[in-house]
Amino acid sequence: MKRFQWLVVGLALAGLAVGCGDDDGGTDSGTADSGTADAGMDAAMELCESTPATMPPECPSGMGIPDEEGLMGACCYRASNASRPDAPEFRVSALRIREPATLSASLVRSALTTALDEERFNWLIRITGADSDGDVTIETGFGQRNADATFSFASGGAPAPGDPNRWNPLSVTGTISGETITAPPIAETFTVPILDAEGTSVVLELPLRSFELECSVMSDDRSCIGERDGRVYQTNHGHLKTYVTVADAMMGRVEIPPIMASLCNFIAGMTSNTGACTDVPQADWPTPPNARCEGGSCSESCDPATDCNAWRISGGFAAHGVEITD
C-alpha cells in the first residue's frame, strides 16, 4: 500500500473519532457500547438470513480489482464453482468489521479493502460434502496466491517469532440448507496475516479464536457470497464472529508506519503506549476487552474492567470463487 494510505490508517488508530457508513446499509459511530453492538449483530444476522441468493450482474471493469489475467467473471469471481457445487471454494473478498471500535473505523476499513483487492490479505474457505442439505466440512485459513492465480492453503512456514504452523487452516463440521451455510465455533486458534505492498513482509496478523460462521448465503451457482456494487462488495450475505485474546494480542505486532505497536495496544486503542498493554489498568483502556475465552470457548459473561480477557470481533463479509490447488 502507498505510504500515504498507511499514514491515514495510523492517524485513525491514533485516536481520530471517525463516523462511517456501512456498505450494507447500516451506520456506526465506532464507539458503540456492547448493547448497541449486539443489536447491530442481530440486525445483520436477520438481513443475512432473509436475503435470497441471487446471481449478481457482471463484474464492473476499471474498479481497481486486480485482473491482469482477465480471469474475473460475474460478481468478480476468479473461478466459477458452477461445475463443483458439492465442493465450492472461496476467498474472502471483503470484510466489514463492526467491532471492536479500533478495527471498525472507516479509514481502517479502507485499508483492509485495499489489501483484499490487491490480494495481500488472503483468507480462504473450502466447503466439501455440499451435494445435499446436512453436514458439510468447512476448511478455512490463510492462503498463498500462486503464479497462475490459483491459491493454496498455508502449510507451515509462518515466520518467527511464533508457531510456524499458525497460518495453517483449520476444519469444522458445519451445516448447509439450500444455499445457506453455518458453522459452530472452532475451538482452536488460526492466524491470518496481512502483507505489505510488496507482498513479502507481514504488517499485521490476526490470531482468531473460536471462529464462528454465523451465516453465509451463496449465489445460485455457488460462486459468490455477496456481490460487487461499484467500488465495494456488499457484505450482507455473510456474517462471522470470532475473538482475539489479550494474551494472543500481546504476542503480535502491528508494523504500519507510523504505527509500531503490539497488537494488544493496537486493539486496545493505546498505540502511543510504548510498554506492554497490561502495564495500564484494563479499566483505563479506551477499548477494553468485552469477552472471556477459556478452554477453547468464549462468551461475553465477564467484566471489561477486570476479568474479560478477549475482544469479540464481528462483522459481515463477501467472498468469491477461486481455485484452491492443495
Brief rundown of the structure:
This protein is an alpha+beta fold and 326 residues long. The chain contains six helices and 18 strands.
3D architecture notes:
This protein is of the alpha+beta class and 326 residues long. It has one domain. The chain is built from 6 helices and 18 strands. The strands form 5 sheets. The chain has an 8-stranded antiparallel beta barrel. Strands 1-2 form a two-stranded antiparallel sheet. A hairpin with a 5-residue loop joins strand 5 and strand 6. Helix 1 packs antiparallel against helix 4. The chain is globular. The N terminus is likely disordered.
List keywords for this structure.
disordered N terminus; 6 helices; eight-stranded antiparallel beta barrel; single chain; two-stranded antiparallel sheet; alpha+beta; 326 residues
What is the alpha-carbon Rg in Å? Answer: 19 Å
Give the spatial strand order of the biggest sheet: 3-4-5-7-8-9-13-18
User: What general form does the structure show?
Assistant: globular
Tell me the structural class: alpha+beta
Treating each run of at least 4 consecutive H or I residues as one helix, how many helices?
A: 6
Termini separation (Å)? 29 Å
Question: N-to-C SSE series?
Answer: HEEHEHHEEEEEEEEEEHEEHEEE
Number of domains: 1
Write the layout of secondary structure elements.
Layout: H1 3-13, E1 20-21, E2 27-28, H2 34-50, E3 89-99, H3 101-104, H4 106-117, E4 123-128, E5 134-145, E6 151-153, E7 170-177, E8 180-195, E9 202-217, E10 224-225, E11 228-229, E12 232-233, E13 238-245, H5 246-251, E14 253-256, E15 259-262, H6 263-268, E16 292-294, E17 297-299, E18 310-321
Antiparallel strand pairs: 1-2, 3-4, 3-18, 4-5, 5-6, 5-7, 7-8, 8-9, 9-13, 10-18, 11-12, 13-18, 14-15, 16-17
Helix pairs in contact: 1-4
